[in-house]
User: What shape does this take?
Amino acid sequence: MKGMLIKDFRILKYQGKTLFLMLLVVAVLMNLITDVGPTFIVGYVTIIFSLFTVSTVSYDEFDNCYLFLMTLPVTREKYVKEKYLFALLSIVFAWCAGIVLGLILMIVQPSGEADAADWFGTCLGYIFTAWIFVSVMLPLRLKFDSEKARYANLIMIAAVAIAAFLISNAIEYVPAKIVEPGKEWFSGLGAAGILGLFAGVTALEVVISYLCSRHIMAKKEF
Amino acid sequence: MLEINGLVKHYGDFTLNCTMKVEPGRITGLVGENGAGKSTTFKAVLGLITYDAGDVTLLGKAPSELTEEEKQKIGVTLAESGFSGYLKVKDVVPVLAALYPAFDREKFLGLCRKFGIPMDKYIREFSTGMKAKLKVLAAVTHRAEFLLMDEPTTGLDVMAREGILDLFREYMEEDENRSILISSHISSDLEGLCDDIYMIHNGEIVFHEETDVLLNEYGLIKADEEQYRNLDKEYILRVRRESFGYSCLTDQKQYYLENYPDVVVEKGSLDEVITMIIGGEKL
Assistant: This one.
């Protein structure tokens, strides 16, 4: 697995460097030109960069090199593990860079955002969001080629949006004696509790996604 | 090292039906035209595709059951696949070192210099020949016990091809228990290298012979109508109608040389055997 990680980080070094620098420049420009704050910038850098980590599958596919990779001393299971580890680590890296940039902007523009704990908590939420993005996209990317995976992503996003819309509407029809205790429990969690819940949901999502990817790779024909 | 028994794989109209063996200490060749089933055989052996029937045993196990440690004992080149074009050779070195504990970095770097492979250039910018050389160098520098080489010399000029074939000879000399399975459509490469040769045609193994036997005992008889009528057909494997009469493939060249001094009997070569096995008729 170490060999595969080295391979992906080397590809990241060559191919992701430009994207990463562009993200930082655009983030600074957005901050200067528009009224977006440092929190948005952390989310922007983390989530957009997370998309790149999934694209390393495309680099593996380029020139049919997938075939050769599977003849190397790496099992299919380890290949999947490596993809998740690489994605999780790269997102942490992008997030850290986003935090540093956000902090610099906060120091330069002190009027910016308020409570440090709140800010950090919100930023932590973005790392979970990025992991959820990757968890949805990685199995799709392993299952389909890049063109089909793009459509599958769009269908997935549409399905999530429709599901969210339906649930938010359906909640009106749920008896108040069920909804109200739920709302109370949720607001009783506090910021830390909600963040913890989000972390739990993310972890569950990553585990389910990993199991799906492992199954997809085990069945894949090259 | 490798045993394939009744391997069957269906791809639409194409069916692969393959039985073959690679013994320790031997170089076995697999020859066949494009689309004959060579690469499909390699894919099945390496566990890259499932198969519909039959058994494959590689290093004593089914390919899908091989562990990382067992895969470290194998060196592979595939005809249309290699390292990511988005890497440079200087990036491939640490990858190989991490994947293969027995990777000989100095040897690899020395061979790269010898074969003119640049360290600091994207692999996607390499010529076909350079890519082919890199794949072979990566396969022979981690003390593998078994090499599976699918068309390793494709795209190479004569000199480079000889250099690569010499590498295989050196690889075999280092340890007498090593083996190589090599496919090629360049017959001369296999003739000079292999101990035995399988021929695959339309997914079927149609011929298997020791290379020495093929070169020393096979022959091509060229006979006119009358000579052909009088010819003992017992040792004729294939016949083909020609403008001058008949071409006949035999595995008993000496018999015809001694008993039919007026008939032309040419020394057998792999190209002629392939042409006759595929294009000739059985009697």
